[in-house]
Design a protein that fits this description.
Radius of gyration: 22 Å
Low-confidence stretches: 21-25
Mean pLDDT: 85
Order of helices and strands: HHEEEEEEEEH
Helix content: 25-40%
Structural class: alpha+beta
Number of domains: 1
Length: 158
């Protein structure tokens, strides 16, 4: 009878664990990307560059890429892109009302392309992307860092 009771307890615990796991919401790349896109777009500070930049595009894609494109008033275009899996660290220089976020990668992992520049089109690599931000609190920056670090811990697809 004791073996039956122990077997029953093990079965019930296993069934309960499976049931709880079935209704849990596993964290995914899409959730992290959505938060990063919303946060960076909400705090982007166009006024820091408005005298030089006509418009910009800042996208965090569902396949884990950060893409930042700036269109200058003189026709020049700069494009920066890196895989979030290559994220190393970030720094913020400024205060809560205005500053610059430096997203650093493990190596020369940032693709930099320049179009319609006086020196011609240039393709190169860099170690960071600099994004102007405004109205951002320390907690917001901590959340951005946390989401970037969690993306690193997700299983990577080849």
């Amino acid at each position: 009878m004791k073996k039956f009771t122990i077997g029953l307890k093990i079965s019930l615990i296993s069934a309960l664990s499976i049931l709880l796991c079935a209704f849990s919401d596993p964290e995914s790349l899409e959730q992290y990307v959505e938060y990063l896109q919303k946060s960076l777009t909400e705090h982007y500070d166009f006024s820091q560059e408005s005298n030089q930049i006509k418009r910009y595009e800042l996208n965090i894609t569902n396949n884990g890429f950060c893409r930042y494109k700036r269109y200058f008033n003189n026709g020049k275009t700069e494009y920066f892109a890196f895989n979030l899996a290559k994220f190393k660290d970030m720094d913020y220089y400024g205060n809560t009302s205005s500053g610059k976020l430096y997203l650093r990668t493990k190596g020369d992992d940032v693709i930099v392309q320049t179009y319609k520049d006086k020196g011609g089109d240039v393709d190169s690599m860099a170690t960071q992307v600099i994004i102007p931000l405004k109205n951002i609190e320390a907690e917001d920056l901590n959340q951005i860092r946390d989401h970037l670090e969690r993306i690193l811990k997700l299983p990577q697809t080849p």
